Every structure is written in C-alpha cells, then in structure tokens.
Amino acid sequence: MVWEEHTVTLQEEVELLRNIPMFANIEPSKLKLLAFTSERLTFGDGDVLFEEGDPGDSAFIIVDGSADVVIQTPSGPITVAQLGRNHIVGEIAILCDVPRTASVKATTKLETMVISKDLFFRLIMEFPQIAVAIMRELAERLEKTNAQLRAVSN
Predict the structure, then answer these.
(1) Of the candidates 2, 82, 14, 9, which has an alpha carbon nearest to the alpha carbon of residue 42?
(2) How far is CA 2 from CA 43, 45, 84, 102, in A?
(3) By CB distance 3.0 to 4.6 Å, which of 4, 53, 106, 120 could disulfide with 110?
(4) Structural domains in the chain?
(5) Closest CA to 79 of 106, 99, 61, 97
(6) Which residue from 24, 26, 109, 98 is spatially nearest to 62, judged by alpha carbons?
(7) Cβ distance 115 to 90 under 8 Å?
(8) What are the helix (H) ranges across the chain?
(9) Backbone conformation region of residue 86, classed left if phi is above 0, alpha if psi is from -120 to 50, else beta
(10) Residues contacting 130, CB < 8 A, separation 6+
(11) Strand-pair category, 58-64 with 88-89
(12) What's the predicted TM-score (pTM) here?
C-alpha cells in the first residue's frame, strides 16, 4: 500500500471541511486548526485504507473519490456501503475503542483528510454539535443495516 501525500492550501481545506455537515457550524478559526493538524493522503483505485480488525487510531474524511465499506461474513466479503465526497469513515473504532468493524477500499482515486484519535476527541469535547451529528450519522447507519437485515431475512 502506497500513500501519496498531497499539498493544498489551508484555505482550500477549510472550505472542504465547511461542506461536511458535522463541521458546517464550526467557526473558521477552528476549521483552520483542524485542517492544519490533519494529514492529507491520496489512495489509488483498489488501495485499502484499513482492514477489518485493525486498531482504530484515526478517522478519514473523503475529500474526493469513492470507497466501499466491506465486512467479512462466513459466506465471504459483503459490501455494506459506498462512500463518496464529504463522508467520514473510521470513527466507530475511535469512539468505541474497538478494532475496525469493517474494511474500507478505494474504488477510484481517493483523496482523504486523516484526523487522529486525539484530535477527533478534542473536537467532540469542544463542539457538542459534532457529537450530535455523529450520533445522527451512526443512527442512520444502524437503521440502514437493520433494513438490510430485514430484507435478507424475508
């Protein structure tokens, strides 16, 4: 796996973050701090961001491109979600302090911002609206998973 570091201006990263719903209401100076302290990584089509079972030490914001979320089952791997621009992935392992619950694989060239575990928790502590947005996102994912399970069991 080869990661290519990518350089963009701080202002461009702030604009990217502002377009992500959970960061939309954060003041620009805090978004600059987030952009400054996050790492920008580019993955190629087919590259794996992380594997199910890996330790969770960061979350990824998809800046551009797409990726599949894949879980292992007794009958083989199943793609449970497709992610694109402005999605965040990897936060469950950070929030629950558990190994990664799924693998994430780029399906196109994928540009990401990587937020460390420590920075992620500082943001949640300082901005409760981020915690609420994360809870909503996780609740939506749970409902989608429940719907998929209902469909399979029928």
Answers:
(1) 2
(2) 7, 11, 21, 20
(3) 106
(4) 4-153 (2.60.120.10)
(5) 106
(6) 109
(7) no
(8) 10-18, 28-37, 91-96, 117-126, 128-153
(9) left
(10) 22, 23, 26, 123, 124
(11) antiparallel
(12) 0.80
According to the model, what pLDDT value does residue 2 have? Answer: 46
* Block residue for tokens 């990401």: 112
pLDDT (tens place) for every residue of the chain, 154 residues total: 444 445 567 788 888 888 887 787 788 888 888 888 888 899 999 999 999 999 999 999 998 999 999 999 999 999 989 999 988 899 888 888 889 989 999 999 999 999 999 988 888 888 888 788 778 878 887 898 888 888 888 7
Scored b (16 or more CB within 10 A) or e, 47-56 reads bebbebeeeb
Three-state DSSP at 32 gives helix
Contact 40, 8 (CB under 8 A): yes
Q: How many residues does the chain have?
A: 154
Sole residue written with tokens 């989608």: 144
pLDDT of residue 66: 97
**Angstrom distance (rounded) from CA 26 to CA 97:** 25
How many CB atoms are closer than 10 A to CB 101? Answer: 15
